[in-house]
Protein backbone atom coordinates (compact mmCIF):
# COMPACT_ATOMS: atom_id res chain seq x y z
CA UNK A 1 0.00 0.00 0.00
CA UNK A 2 2.84 2.38 0.88
CA UNK A 3 4.63 1.61 -2.43
CA UNK A 4 1.40 2.33 -4.33
CA UNK A 5 1.00 5.68 -2.52
CA UNK A 6 4.60 6.71 -3.22
CA UNK A 7 4.14 5.76 -6.89
CA UNK A 8 0.97 7.85 -7.01
CA UNK A 9 2.77 10.89 -5.54
CA UNK A 10 5.64 10.49 -8.03
CA UNK A 11 3.20 10.40 -10.96
CA UNK A 12 1.41 13.49 -9.63
CA UNK A 13 4.71 15.38 -9.28
CA UNK A 14 5.94 14.32 -12.73
CA UNK A 15 2.66 15.39 -14.33
CA UNK A 16 2.58 18.76 -12.57
CA UNK A 17 6.26 19.60 -13.20
CA UNK A 18 6.00 18.68 -16.89
CA UNK A 19 2.74 20.60 -17.35
CA UNK A 20 3.78 24.15 -16.52
CA UNK A 21 3.44 25.22 -20.16
CA UNK A 22 0.07 23.47 -20.46
CA UNK A 23 -1.23 25.65 -17.63
CA UNK A 24 -0.19 28.80 -19.51
CA UNK A 25 -1.84 27.53 -22.70
CA UNK A 26 -5.13 26.95 -20.89
CA UNK A 27 -5.06 30.42 -19.40
CA UNK A 28 -4.32 31.98 -22.81
CA UNK A 29 -6.85 29.94 -24.79
CA UNK A 30 -9.80 30.98 -22.66
CA UNK A 31 -8.95 34.46 -21.40
CA UNK A 32 -10.92 36.37 -24.09
CA UNK A 33 -14.17 34.52 -23.37
CA UNK A 34 -16.92 35.77 -21.03
CA UNK A 35 -16.53 34.44 -17.49
CA UNK A 36 -19.35 31.89 -17.81
CA UNK A 37 -17.99 30.52 -21.10
CA UNK A 38 -14.44 30.56 -19.75
CA UNK A 39 -15.47 28.14 -17.02
CA UNK A 40 -17.19 25.88 -19.55
CA UNK A 41 -14.14 25.91 -21.83
CA UNK A 42 -11.85 24.96 -18.93
CA UNK A 43 -14.25 22.21 -17.77
CA UNK A 44 -14.80 20.56 -21.17
CA UNK A 45 -11.20 21.14 -22.22
CA UNK A 46 -10.05 19.44 -19.02
CA UNK A 47 -12.42 16.52 -19.56
CA UNK A 48 -11.16 15.97 -23.12
CA UNK A 49 -7.51 16.36 -22.11
CA UNK A 50 -7.82 13.87 -19.24
CA UNK A 51 -9.50 11.24 -21.42
CA UNK A 52 -7.00 11.63 -24.25
CA UNK A 53 -3.97 11.54 -21.97
CA UNK A 54 -5.18 8.44 -20.10
CA UNK A 55 -5.75 6.56 -23.38
CA UNK A 56 -2.34 7.58 -24.77
CA UNK A 57 -0.57 6.61 -21.56
CA UNK A 58 -2.20 3.17 -21.41
CA UNK A 59 -1.21 2.58 -25.05
CA UNK A 60 2.35 3.65 -24.21
CA UNK A 61 2.46 1.17 -21.29
CA UNK A 62 1.93 -1.74 -23.69
CA UNK A 63 4.19 -0.36 -26.43
CA UNK A 64 7.03 -0.07 -23.93
CA UNK A 65 6.87 -3.84 -23.38
CA UNK A 66 8.27 -4.38 -26.89
CA UNK A 67 12.03 -5.13 -26.87
CA UNK A 68 14.33 -2.26 -27.95
CA UNK A 69 11.47 0.26 -27.76
CA UNK A 70 11.92 0.47 -24.00
CA UNK A 71 15.64 1.20 -24.24
CA UNK A 72 14.97 3.83 -26.92
CA UNK A 73 12.26 5.29 -24.69
CA UNK A 74 14.70 5.41 -21.78
CA UNK A 75 17.09 7.58 -23.80
CA UNK A 76 14.23 9.85 -24.86
CA UNK A 77 13.07 10.14 -21.26
CA UNK A 78 16.62 10.99 -20.17
CA UNK A 79 16.67 13.80 -22.75
CA UNK A 80 13.25 15.04 -21.55
CA UNK A 81 14.55 15.15 -17.97
CA UNK A 82 17.67 17.10 -18.95
CA UNK A 83 15.70 19.44 -21.20
CA UNK A 84 13.32 20.17 -18.32
CA UNK A 85 16.21 21.73 -16.38
CA UNK A 86 18.19 23.41 -19.17
CA UNK A 87 15.47 24.69 -21.51
CA UNK A 88 14.48 28.30 -20.86
CA UNK A 89 12.12 28.56 -23.81
CA UNK A 90 8.41 28.26 -23.19
CA UNK A 91 6.03 26.40 -25.46
CA UNK A 92 2.91 28.42 -24.86
CA UNK A 93 2.69 30.21 -28.21
CA UNK A 94 -1.08 29.89 -28.50
CA UNK A 95 -3.68 32.34 -29.78
CA UNK A 96 -6.60 33.35 -27.62
CA UNK A 97 -9.80 31.67 -28.80
CA UNK A 98 -12.81 33.81 -29.67
CA UNK A 99 -15.54 31.19 -29.19
CA UNK A 100 -16.30 28.48 -26.64
CA UNK A 101 -15.85 25.66 -29.17
CA UNK A 102 -12.52 27.00 -30.38
CA UNK A 103 -11.26 27.40 -26.81
CA UNK A 104 -12.17 23.80 -25.93
CA UNK A 105 -10.51 22.52 -29.11
CA UNK A 106 -7.40 24.63 -28.49
CA UNK A 107 -7.04 23.29 -24.94
CA UNK A 108 -7.42 19.64 -26.00
CA UNK A 109 -5.09 19.89 -29.03
CA UNK A 110 -2.47 21.89 -27.12
CA UNK A 111 -2.54 19.40 -24.26
CA UNK A 112 -2.10 16.53 -26.74
CA UNK A 113 0.84 18.14 -28.54
CA UNK A 114 2.58 19.26 -25.36
CA UNK A 115 1.95 16.14 -23.27
CA UNK A 116 3.88 13.46 -25.16
CA UNK A 117 6.67 13.82 -22.61
CA UNK A 118 4.17 13.37 -19.76
CA UNK A 119 2.73 10.27 -21.43
CA UNK A 120 6.14 8.62 -21.80
CA UNK A 121 7.28 9.55 -18.29
CA UNK A 122 4.12 8.31 -16.57
CA UNK A 123 3.91 5.12 -18.63
CA UNK A 124 7.52 4.31 -17.70
CA UNK A 125 7.05 5.11 -14.01
CA UNK A 126 3.72 3.34 -13.48
CA UNK A 127 5.05 -0.09 -14.49
CA UNK A 128 1.67 -1.32 -15.71
CA UNK A 129 -0.34 -0.02 -12.73
CA UNK A 130 -3.30 1.24 -14.80
CA UNK A 131 -5.24 2.32 -11.70
CA UNK A 132 -2.40 4.56 -10.55
CA UNK A 133 -2.11 6.06 -14.04
CA UNK A 134 -5.80 6.97 -14.20
CA UNK A 135 -5.88 8.35 -10.65
CA UNK A 136 -2.61 10.27 -10.98
CA UNK A 137 -3.56 11.90 -14.29
CA UNK A 138 -7.19 12.41 -13.28
CA UNK A 139 -6.24 14.36 -10.16
CA UNK A 140 -3.19 16.26 -11.41
CA UNK A 141 -4.72 17.69 -14.60
CA UNK A 142 -7.56 19.52 -12.77
CA UNK A 143 -4.96 20.90 -10.35
CA UNK A 144 -2.96 22.19 -13.33
CA UNK A 145 -5.97 23.57 -15.20
CA UNK A 146 -7.95 25.24 -12.43
CA UNK A 147 -4.88 26.35 -10.58
CA UNK A 148 -2.84 27.24 -13.66
CA UNK A 149 -1.47 30.49 -12.26
CA UNK A 150 -0.78 28.83 -8.91
CA UNK A 151 1.13 25.97 -10.56
CA UNK A 152 3.31 28.30 -12.64
CA UNK A 153 4.08 30.53 -9.63
CA UNK A 154 4.75 27.51 -7.41
CA UNK A 155 7.29 26.05 -9.82
CA UNK A 156 9.00 29.44 -10.12
CA UNK A 157 9.01 30.02 -6.36
CA UNK A 158 10.24 26.53 -5.46
CA UNK A 159 12.68 25.40 -8.20
CA UNK A 160 13.53 22.39 -6.01
CA UNK A 161 10.21 20.85 -7.16
CA UNK A 162 11.44 20.94 -10.74
CA UNK A 163 14.75 19.34 -9.72
CA UNK A 164 12.95 16.61 -7.77
CA UNK A 165 10.67 15.91 -10.74
CA UNK A 166 13.60 15.84 -13.16
CA UNK A 167 15.51 13.55 -10.79
CA UNK A 168 12.59 11.11 -10.71
CA UNK A 169 12.54 11.15 -14.52
CA UNK A 170 16.29 10.52 -14.64
CA UNK A 171 16.01 7.58 -12.25
CA UNK A 172 13.04 6.19 -14.20
CA UNK A 173 15.00 6.38 -17.47
CA UNK A 174 17.70 4.22 -15.89
CA UNK A 175 15.09 1.71 -14.70
CA UNK A 176 13.55 1.65 -18.18
CA UNK A 177 16.91 0.85 -19.74
CA UNK A 178 17.46 -2.04 -17.33
CA UNK A 179 13.95 -3.39 -18.01
CA UNK A 180 14.90 -3.88 -21.67
CA UNK A 181 16.98 -6.96 -20.82
CA UNK A 182 18.08 -7.72 -24.39
CA UNK A 183 19.84 -4.36 -24.66
CA UNK A 184 20.96 -3.87 -21.05
CA UNK A 185 22.52 -7.33 -20.71
CA UNK A 186 24.35 -6.90 -24.00
CA UNK A 187 25.83 -3.55 -22.93
CA UNK A 188 26.30 -3.90 -19.17
CA UNK A 189 28.83 -6.74 -18.99
CA UNK A 190 29.68 -7.16 -15.32
CA UNK A 191 28.40 -3.70 -14.37
CA UNK A 192 26.12 -3.73 -11.30
CA UNK A 193 22.66 -2.82 -12.53
CA UNK A 194 21.81 -0.60 -9.55
CA UNK A 195 24.44 1.88 -10.75
CA UNK A 196 22.54 2.76 -13.95
CA UNK A 197 19.56 4.64 -12.41
CA UNK A 198 21.96 6.43 -10.05
CA UNK A 199 24.14 7.53 -12.98
CA UNK A 200 21.17 8.77 -15.03
CA UNK A 201 19.83 10.70 -12.02
CA UNK A 202 23.21 12.33 -11.36
CA UNK A 203 23.53 13.16 -15.07
CA UNK A 204 20.17 14.97 -15.08
CA UNK A 205 20.72 16.89 -11.85
CA UNK A 206 24.30 17.69 -12.89
CA UNK A 207 23.11 19.14 -16.20
CA UNK A 208 20.64 21.35 -14.36
CA UNK A 209 23.25 22.58 -11.87
CA UNK A 210 25.73 23.29 -14.68
CA UNK A 211 23.12 25.36 -16.49
CA UNK A 212 22.16 27.17 -13.28
CA UNK A 213 25.60 28.01 -11.90
CA UNK A 214 28.18 27.61 -14.69
CA UNK A 215 26.34 28.62 -17.85
CA UNK A 216 23.91 31.02 -16.20
CA UNK A 217 23.00 33.83 -18.65
CA UNK A 218 24.50 37.19 -17.72
CA UNK A 219 21.97 39.94 -16.86
CA UNK A 220 21.47 42.48 -19.60
CA UNK A 221 22.55 46.03 -18.81
CA UNK A 222 20.07 48.75 -19.60
UniProtKB/TrEMBL annotation:
Pfam families: TerC. The keyword RNA-binding does not apply. Keywords: Membrane, Transmembrane, Transmembrane helix. It is found in: Membrane. Its main location: membrane. The keyword Hydrolase does not apply. This is TerC family protein. It comes from Paenibacillus allorhizosphaerae. The chain crosses the membrane at residues 6-29, 41-62, 68-86, 130-148, 160-179, 191-210. Belongs to the TerC family. It is a multi-pass membrane protein. InterPro entries: Integral_membrane_TerC (IPR005496), Integral_membrane_YjbE (IPR022301).
Amino acid sequence: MWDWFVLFLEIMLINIVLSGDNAVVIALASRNLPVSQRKQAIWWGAFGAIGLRVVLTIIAVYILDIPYIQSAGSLLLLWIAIKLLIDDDGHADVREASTLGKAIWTIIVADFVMSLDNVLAIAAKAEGEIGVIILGIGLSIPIIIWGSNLVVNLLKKFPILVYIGAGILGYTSGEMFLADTKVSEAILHGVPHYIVPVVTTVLVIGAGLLKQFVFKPKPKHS
